[in-house]
Amino acid sequence: MGRPRSGKRPIRVHLLKRSFERRISKTGIIVVLLGAGGRGLKQRRILRQELTVLGIIALIPEDDFPKEIAPSLCEEAMLSKGDIELAFVNVQSWGTATEFAQFHKNSTIAPKLRVLVPHEYHPLYGNSKSYLTDLYLTHTAIFGHVYAIDDARTSAFPPSRQVIMKLAERYRQCKVLGLLTR
Fold it and tell me: Cα-atom radius of gyration of the chain, to the nearest Å?
């Protein structure tokens, strides 16, 4: 047996690595950050800046969607478009709970939803028996995108920021590698 031809192999690996790095840096995704106003809006604006540094376009309806159209109509129309790939819904208020329920029923939007809920209301980890927790369970069973969070950091569950950053970046990597089926 002859010696392995190791000279060309490392070069190919390095070229492939650089190719992936270039493709990831050039590939953008568009995400929408939905959540409560007030302090929640301020947190979403900070998160948008962090995602932008990674090359991910993050839209916030209060800032980026047309103000002349009612939010309940505009958000559904915008999220139905193919350009928006992920919609993070951080359920912090009755308003975002209503948005989630509305979007869960829309077959175009529901697969894009990444629902963030306080761990005590998560259908698998919490003890809540509420109607909303029951809807989370249905969404989990069909789409599998309900994540337990703990923004107060009193448990082992991660904060919403960490979940959004990880999921958005991994989604972009999967897009570059051609692993997305939709």
Answer: 19
pTM above 0.85, yes or no: yes
pLDDT by residue (tens digit) across 127-165?
A: 999 999 999 999 999 999 999 999 999 999 999 999 999
Residue 100 in any domain: the answer is yes
Residue 16 lies in a domain: no
Tens of pLDDT, residue by residue over 40-87, are 999 999 999 999 999 999 999 999 999 999 998 999 999 998 799 999
Compute CA 143 distance to the chain's CA centroid, rounded to the nearest angstrom. 13
Could you tell me which residues come within 8 angstroms of residue 89 by beta carbon, excluding any fewer than 6 positions away? 34, 35, 96, 99, 100, 103, 113, 114, 115, 116
**Number of domains the chain is built from:** 1
Domain that holds residue 137: 28-176
Residue 50 inside a domain? The answer is yes
